[in-house]
Amino acid sequence: MKVGTIIENEKWKIKVYAPPKEHGPAHVHVIAKGDKAEVKISLIDLAVIGKTKFNKQTVKGIIKYVHKNYDILMDAWEKLHENKKKT
User: How many CB atoms lie within 10 A of CB 16?
Assistant: First the structure.
């Protein structure tokens, strides 16, 4: 399974995992630097998928950051999953 950090800042790394293990719907993994917190954010509706150790205020900031970088993140998702779409 390929793992790619698509973008990062001083607080988080945003990754997209590739098939075969990873699958849709389109989403990203946001991982805290220096922490063990992680959250999955849907690229379809910018909703949190599953549970997270991030507090609500931090999640709001993460969602804003994902929204701001949506085009880059969705492009990365589509490139890593393009072979999956064809089958």
Answer: 24
